[in-house]
Amino acid sequence: QSALTQPASVSGSPGQSITISCTGTSSDVGGSNYVSWYQQLPGKAPKLMIYDVSNRPSGVSNRFSGSKSGNTASLTISGLQAEDEADYYCSSYTSSSTLVFGTGTKVTVL
Amino acid sequence: EVQLVESGGGLVQSGGSLRLSCAASGLTFSNYAMSWVRQAPGKGLEWVSVISGSGSTTYYADSVKGRFTISRDNSRSTLYLQMNSLRAEDTAMYYCAKDLIPRKPIVGATNYDYWGQGTLVTVSS
Predict the structure, then answer these.
(1) Are A90 and A104 in contact (CB under 8 A)?
(2) Do B111 and A36 touch (CB under 8 A)?
(3) How far is CA A65 from the centre of its chain?
(4) What is the percentage of chain A residues whose pLDDT exceeds 70?
């Protein structure tokens, strides 16, 4: 159950688009359609942004989108805003019927 | 509105035990798988365990298997985590979290739409 690999940090200017990658194996990301993304603000509980690879929960901005190719899932934030500055985590269902989170990515809005 | 309120955290010595509780309201509790997720200070999220809505199915992370037990009382809308043989590396904020979709057939494939505020567990060595 090794953590999924994410870049430690990603940055962008307001209005730009950024993409965060989440790399696993065929036993998790590559073999699952149950990949989610969470946003965590400092001192707060995580917030679900994307589920089942590319679905947005009600109330989440359509600036957030998810996709997957092979063993790598991606979260794209378009039209980057100051309020998007946070930590982002992916998660994936695994072949062992467990869940694994990514290492986390700090998004900085320049 | 859905609310999840954890309790039971605190300071415990290595080798000791604690029981965490998560009181749920605003939902039909038995319809949803529930989980515990932890976060060590300054670190990332770590999935701990999940339990099905009925309580009949449970899964654990390797790091806690054999030491932690997840359970639920649907009549009280409460989730529990019994933690035994605690180690320094178990020090973390523990969150309970609710699955987005009710009665999901794949118990472990959880997406967490509601989280509690967390309860801090500190294990001293």
Answers:
(1) no
(2) yes
(3) 9
(4) 100
Quick check: B2 contacting A, CB < 8 Å?
Answer: no
The answer to whether B5 contacts chain A (CB < 8 Å) is no
pLDDT tens track for A56-87: 999 999 999 999 999 999 999 999 999 999 99
Shortest CA gap A13–chain B (Å): 25
**B92, B98, B85: which is closest to B121 by C-alpha?**
B92
Choose the mutation target among A44, A47, A99 for the interface with B, i.e. most B CBs under 10 Å: A99
- Which of B46, B93, B112 should one mutate to test binding to chain A, selecting the residue with the greatest count of A CBs within 10 A? B112
Residues 6+ away with beta carbon under 8 Å from B73: B80
DSSP string, B30-98: GGS-EEEEEE-TTS-EEEEEEE-SSS--EEE-TTTTTTEEEEEETTTTEEEEEE-S--GGG-EEEEEEE
For B96, residues 6+ apart whose C-beta sits below 8 A from its C-beta are: B4, B6, B20, B22, B24, B34, B35, B36, B37, B79, B115, B116
